[in-house]
Amino acid sequence: MKQSHLFAKTIRNISDDVKSVSHKLLLRGGFIFPVSAGIYALSPLGFRVFEKIKNIIRNDFDQFEAQEISMPIVHPARIWKQTGRFQDIGDELWKIKNREGEDFVLAMTHEEIAAYIAETIIKTYKDLPILVNQFQVKIRDELRARGGMLRAKEFLMQDAYSFDKDEKGMDESYEKFYESYGRIFKNLSLEAVPVEASGGVMGQGQSHEFMLISEAGEDKIAFCEQCGYKANIEVLANAKICQKCKIELKETSAVELGQTFKLGLKYSRSLNVKFKDSNGKDNIVYMGSYGIGIGRAMAAVAEIHNDEKGLVWPQALSPFAAHLISLGQNKESDRVYTALLKSGIDVLYDDRLDKTPGEKFTDADLMGMPFRIVISAKTAVNKKAEVKKRNENKVSIVSYAELNNILQ
Questions:
Q1: What is the mean pLDDT of the chain?
Q2: Confidence class of residue 218 from pLDDT cuts 50, 70 and 90?
Q3: Distance from first CA to last CA of the chain, Å, rounded?
Q4: Which 8-state DSSP code applies to residue 285?
Q5: Does residue 289 surpass a pLDDT of 80?
């Protein structure tokens, strides 16, 4: 991608109202565009990070055959009324009407629709277990949409649903996603801590939140320094003493990255999701649900992986493998750019003629690609380039042929 064509611009100055580190850096780096409070558009840079996150999740889910589907964002309210959540959830649930006056809701989650579809597909015990996953937009009318992508009104979520014939099967499916989330967050370069959590409006069964300890977080978790027990303070209520060690629990702020839920029969009973067992008897299907906010994951990475100059993307998530900068040597840089693309290496090429070297270097540091490659008059004469890792100060001079090995 040539930077002169990039549908994004870096920003030098942003509003003082922007507080979180990730919000500042994603705005300044040109990754996101604010449209309204809590509603953001993605630039090609942000979109590429989203795709990297989604593919890391997909690759892990493929290991245990979670099938990818897509469910609608607009839901008939009659389905939500069957489970009671249309009445139970407050203003956070966006309720609308069509031209005939029929009630609909905008999806804040998809348990109802997943169960509604499953009712038509699941017939016998031979159909179970089933694991499905989607990447879909969620709408929640948050009272305080702040922190950029950390708490938005519209956001993309990975949400998966499991269907099993009994509680044992539900536990096994839950364990698959629980373990998968641990691997996924590690591959996202995030130290996610699983803690006991409340099911909230989702369900009353066992639940875990995967938390990133960070001052930017709005959640509070309690932990025992002696045995390592951890829980969201909502679960503990007033019990601030570790039940095992009998010592006072400590508290810290955290960002919720994802959550897993054992839903049991909550939705399947309301929506009549049944199967016939080997004796021909009807049984209610057990469900679980599992979600990761994609935008929040990107913001969490930005919160952790940065320095005073800007973002420092882990290689697995970076929009591009490298940032190629031309210092008045565009013909030579064009040849290097073309060669890298032919080798299958994704490069952002700063070919802009109206920017100084200082402006180009500042933008490169702000955007945070893992490698910076510079072609100047000094290097071009010997068919070489300067290469610098974003997280290091060392600059190396290498031949064009060596670039492939470094960037692969």
A1: 95
A2: confident
A3: 18
A4: P
A5: yes
